[in-house]
Amino acid sequence: MFPRPNRLDPSVHWLRNRRLTRISTAAVLAAASAVLAVHSASAEALLLVEVDTGKVLHAENATYPWYPASVTKLMTAYVTLRAAREGRITLDTLINVSDHAVAQQPTKMGFRAGTQVTVDNALKMMMVKSANDMAVTLAEGVGGSIENFAGEMNRAAQRLGMTQSSFVNPNGLPDENQVTSARDLAILARALIREFPEYDLYWHIPAIKLGKRVMRNYNTLIDRYPGADGMKTGFICSAGFNLVATATRGNKRLIAVVLGAPSSSVRAVQAAQLLEKGFGTHPLSWLLPSLGTVDALVPIAASPPDLHEAMCGKHRHRPAAETEEEPADTSNDPDAASAYAAMNQSLRAQKVVLGPLIPSMPPIEVFVGASKPRPRPVVARSSASGDAAVPAASATKKPAATKPAAAKPAAAKKPSTVAAPSSPKPPPRPGS
Length: 432
Fold this sequence. Notes:
Elements: H1 10-42, E1 45-50, E2 56-60, H2 73-85, E3 94-96, H3 99-102, E4 116-118, H4 119-129, H5 132-143, H6 146-160, H7 182-195, E5 207-210, E6 213-216, E7 228-236, E8 240-249, E9 252-261, H8 264-279, H9 308-312, H10 334-349, E10 364-366, E11 378-383, E12 386-391
Parallel strand pairs: 5-10
Antiparallel strand pairs: 1-2, 1-9, 3-4, 5-6, 7-8, 8-9, 11-12
Helix pairs in contact: 2-4, 2-5, 2-6, 4-5, 5-6
């Protein structure tokens, strides 16, 4: 307790006010420190990187270890495409859905054990639907077992310089030893884009169609954010909502990584904010300190934060779904309204809004079983016994029908048993 001030001595008032100011300042600083500590424990990891140069444009907690969840499937795709390039498999290779694949939860295609799918179709289902059973099917088809495939994933991570990453499964289901960071995920995304440009469609397919069922990509930036062209989402309770997003405008392609967002909608808008920052031109950007390149970011030695209680704890009126891809409707959720109101207000103030869905292409058909045979064009070829129909693939020269009429020999004017078609349409690219 302060002594009662002497009304006749102003120095007493000054001393008392100074003490109160010190106490008040200390209390404010202590409270602020507590708030910052709580915030830092649950803060997201954010990273923005240029694809061509690897230059870091924005970084927050970018080298803090994190549980990857389903963004793990980017590494599964990387190892699978490397195996295809090395000739160990082809995109038309049939792989079997095992009992172990069937047992995967919660997001999956739901095929029975023994079902066969091509590598191409399994990749499409895994990247769009985030199907955990297809990730296991690919791992077993490429590596022979989950353990062998995980070994390939870790060797690939080491080769790429992903020093904070460790993989034990191909789909990102919860495991305390399955760890990565925003830094490592940006390195992986760059490798996919730069090493496999011919397979770029795999990570920006807007939707797939299986029979009459249409499944849209869970990356809601695709077909809603200008220039969005990849890559993968992820969610488990311990990680929060994760997203690796890419977008291209003009000659600039960017990678945005968001880890630990409180909802799927917030992670999408945060990624859009990062991308907008990268595509925008700041008149004083040359004054900003350089953040270097993504591979030069210094890793932090720590344990990944566990967001399970915040995401799926009992205190929430409606916990986040364990599957990122089918989160519960939170429109009437008071917890969600109170927790995200400030965030949503901030996003609206910055006018970063995803546009309406404008499909860039029809859903790509996927199916089980072997690849549907492509019709082989048939052309007429003269032989000793007369004109005979032969497959175009067996002809060593360009079909006569594609030459100008004036260049045809007289014998070619005879009616053929099979009419020559127009120029054969080349087969679609793998992954189209």
